[in-house]
Amino acid sequence: MFDGFRNGWGLAMAGKNPWGSPGKGNGGDSGDGDGSGDGPGGGDTPSGGNSDGPRNPWLPGGGSGGKKPGSKPGGRRSASIEDIFKNRGPEGPRRAGGGGGGGFRVPERPGGGSWLPIILGGIAALWLILSSAHLIQPGEQAVVKTLGSYSRTLDSGLQLTAPWPIETVDIEDVERVRAVSIPEGSNEKLILTGDQNLVDLSYIVRWRINDLRDFKFQLAEPEETVNEVAEAAMRASVAEKTLDETFTGQGRAEIELAVRERMQATLNGYRAGIQVVGVQIEKADPPESVVDAFRDVSVAEQNADQARNQARGYAQQTLARAEGEAEAFDKVYEQYRLAPGVTRQRLYYETMERVLSQTDKTIIETEGVTPYLPLPEIRRRATAQPPQITVEANSSRQGGQ
Description:
With 401 residues, the protein is α+β, with helices and mostly antiparallel strands. The chain contains 11 helices and 11 strands.
């Protein structure tokens, strides 16, 4: 249908009449055909002369195409309206892909109608369904924009909107916890501490979306904003601690809590629609260029701590011993106040027992017994030779006798 209409339109635009011109034959542009007559049709008679062009239905001899008797049969005839809209030329149906611009034809329905409206209707219905129905999974939300402006927020489930491009839908998972590692990879991140030292810190920030509208429309690059806010909060928090505190577990916990609070306050001020779930410090080491010196310092500090602990232990033991002796002396003094003589004699015996127990000599002050008897020495010699007893007379006694 379209090919026939195109052919007819082409002839009309070219200035050619499919029925011929009233004053010209179809055999030439000046109406002189085979003859030189000046009459209408450009031939010998008004019937169109000897021309083989399309016949004029308004001239005599229309049944024979306006030709003289004896002309060749099967000549070219003009296209009719039906031929144009039925894709038929003067010589019959045109073949697809052949001369004259033939092309694809939509097959007809059994009733004679065209399938084109049904196909177009199906495409339109599919477009409406696909662009209007949205299945939002649990934990997800969607932002609806009407002609580019925010309209509403949709929760999970099957939701309906106006077709695209009137309304567009952007779906995000608001329950998923996102994590960002600072710095990325094995890069070094040096941060200045409160005692003017440098520490190499690497940490992870975990966050999630708590307001999808603010997340989509308040920040141009939300993830980049989270990175920058986290770095600023970490530098401010580490600047409040010393180098030694950043290496300890308690100091790290305090830094993590301070960074989280600072980040949340800053993001709330931006109306970013982001909730900071947690901050975790993965590594806190001295800079790589001075790590050996820091290790030596750490070893020296450990040795100093060990020596201090040993000194504290010795001091505690000495103090406990002194306290015990003082308490014992107080008890003895109480007894001495009650019986001074007895207490003095007892102290003498205890002292002599304690002193003489460490010597190898034995002194006996009894009549008829040698005052000095080296019993330990005798026991040592008994295993090597027979015992020999040496009796020493007391000079004072001998003089008396």
